[in-house]
Design brief:
Elements: H1 2-31, H2 39-68
Keywords: Membrane, Transmembrane, Transmembrane helix
Transmembrane segments: 9-31, 43-63
Length: 70
């Protein structure tokens, strides 16, 4: 019984972290991203955003997998 509760809480904690990570990357893109920098800076920022969004999706997928095992 307690293992089920722990998995349930872990799944929803991971979903919450995924949502926070996604919206923080969205906020970074909207408020801090500078299009007037050099090409290298723009590519670094774009790569950073891709990695963060991919990490957010991966965390969400892990949470869904844990949730489906409950």
């Amino acid at each position: 019984m307690s293992e089920k509760i722990i998995k349930y809480l872990l799944a929803y904690a991971l979903m919450f972290i995924s949502v926070l990570l996604f919206f923080s990357s969205l906020g970074y893109y909207l408020f801090l991203f500078d299009w007037h920098g050099t090409r290298v800076t723009v590519w670094m920022n774009a790569g950073f955003l891709v990695v963060i969004v991919a990490a957010s999706i991966a965390i969400y997928a892990v949470a869904e997998k844990i949730k489906s095992q409950i």
